[in-house]
Design goal:
The complex is a heterodimer. By secondary structure, chain A is α+β, with helices and mostly antiparallel strands. Chain A has helices spanning 2-17, 25-31, 36-47, 51-69, 74-80, 86-97, 101-107, 121-130, 156-169, 231-246, and strands at residues 134-140, 143-150, 175-181, 192-199, 210-214, 217-223, 249-250, 254-261, 266-275. In chain A, strands 1, 2, 3, 4, 5, 6, 7, 8 and 9 form a nine-stranded antiparallel β-sheet that branches. Classes of the chains: A alpha+beta, B alpha+beta.
């Protein structure tokens, strides 16, 4: 397994070094010593993108950086990253990020969750060991949570703390929610985190708790092995790969973790509000 | 890996095809990638239409053909065709299409056990050159017969791959 990962990592290095050059998938295969067919198979297995799709998305990541950091003309950036012309660049950019490049430059920021980062050894090892999260789509009704804000990202330890803390307050609960809200204004602010349990009537909220509404709508629900322990890998897959491969659009900056206590075992899922939004 | 150089007549296949990157959804050696799905689609169809296909089928052997084009080295896209030999075209069902494998010289490669899922194709050019041959047309095919026991019994399986070749002119 390590040999395969090392070979694909060499190909990923090759891609990073040649983002602005006219490279082919066959060149990537040669860079790590595999035949084209075998390389395509292994690359998909390790990275969960096709090699060509990965190349295009890493090029797009480069263009985002240039759009936000420089005043270079769009056409120059597009040609620099081997897009045929401005129209092709805009079309591909919009399909991936849901916004025209000109709009991104004007507003001065882009949801960084969607920008494909260079796939690293740890992520490949995680994919090969635990697989990818399994997604299902559900229509969810509006829900209210009672709980409290918290600091820092979710983790196994933190989830246990939250469970104990809220259990004292709401004894009947067997399911705990953790809600992360990402800043979508281009600021460098940290996401806001909240943990709580579902309540039926927010008007009966105990004075020492806060209420939080989860909107009705379509949700993509992700489950998988060791999701809670490896939430950073799950996020990399969900935001950068799953959205890319399915064409699903994220409808709001919310991310909801749900920890359920079962009779035999506990489970953890991550949910995102999704929609079929159009390009703006 | 045993290689033999042979002549083959043209082969007419009836079957189904896929074009793209077949490993987009599943890169491993599993039946959930597009090649696996394509095989299952053909097998399901053949199973449900056994009586209609029987008079059209020359042999039970199952063919998997990989055809490379301009988009293969550039973008990793290629055609995969799966099917069986046929000699009867006129009554071919609408759901199936015909693929003609041209006559010519072929390198016949016997793959046994783990070699089937190895990168056996990688050093082929070098091996062919040592024998005075080079690749001919941009395709190859694998023939699965009763020697192939399935992915879950790969260690006991065998299959034969055919690569079109032409002599190196000196």
């Amino acid at each position: 397994m390590e040999e395969r990962i090392a070979a694909i990592n060499a190909a990923l290095d090759f891609i990073e070094q040649h983002l602005r050059e006219d490279i082919r998938v066959e060149d990537m295969a040669v860079s790590c010593g595999y035949s084209l067919f075998h390389f395509i198979r292994l690359f998909n297995q390790c990275v969960h993108h096709t090699p060509y799709d990965y190349l295009i998305r890493r090029r797009l990541a480069g263009t985002v950086d240039e759009l936000l950091r420089t005043r270079r003309r769009l056409i120059d950036i597009a040609l620099d990253y081997r897009f045929q012309n401005a129209e092709t660049f805009s079309r591909v950019f919009s399909r991936v990020f849901g916004l025209q490049p000109s709009r991104v430059r004007k507003q001065g920021w882009l949801d960084r969750r969607l920008i494909l980062q260079r796939c690293d050894l740890e992520l490949m090892r995680h994919y090969l060991k635990f697989g990818i999260p399994h997604a299902s789509r559900i229509a969810g009704a509006e829900r209210w949570l009672a709980g409290c804000p918290l600091e820092g990202d979710i983790s196994l330890v933190k989830m246990r703390e939250i469970r104990e803390r809220l259990k004292l307050l709401l004894r009947a609960a067997s399911r705990w929610y953790w809600v992360r809200t990402y800043p979508l204004d281009g600021s460098q602010a940290e996401p806001a985190d909240f943990a709580g349990v579902e309540i039926v009537d927010p008007s009966s909220l105990p004075a020492h708790l806060f209420a939080r509404r989860l909107p009705a709508g379509d949700w993509a629900v992700f489950s998988g092995q060791r999701l809670l322990e490896n939430v950073q890998f799950a996020r990399a897959y969900i935001y950068q790969t799953w959205t890319a491969n399915t064409g699903e659009k994220i409808a709001s900056p919310l991310e909801v973790g749900c920890f359920s206590q079962g009779e035999k075992s506990d489970s953890f899922t991550i949910s995102l509000p999704v929609s079929n939004s159009t390009v703006r | 890996m045993k290689i033999e150089f042979i002549s083959r007549q043209a082969t007419y296949l009836m079957g189904m095809s896929f074009y793209g990157d077949p490993f987009k959804d599943a890169g491993d050696w599993s039946e959930s990638n597009e090649i696996g799905r394509l095989c299952r689609r053909y097998m399901d169809y053949a199973g449900k239409n056994r009586d209609a296909l029987l008079p059209l089928t020359l042999k039970d052997d199952f063919y998997e053909v990989h055809i490379y084009g301009e988009e293969s080295p550039a973008r990793g896209l290629f055609e995969v065709f799966v099917g069986q030999e046929t000699g009867e075209w006129n009554s071919l069902p609408l759901e199936l299409s015909i693929k003609v494998l041209p006559a010519g010289q072929f390198a016949k490669v016997d793959l046994v056990g783990q070699a089937i899922i190895s990168d056996w194709y990688k050093d082929l050019d070098e091996r062919l050159a040592r024998e005075g041959w080079q690749r001919g047309l941009p395709f190859f095919f694998q023939v699965y017969d009763q020697r192939y026991k399935g992915l879950e019994r790969i260690a006991e399986s065998e299959l034969t791959a055919y690569i079109p070749v032409k002599p190196i002119l000196k």
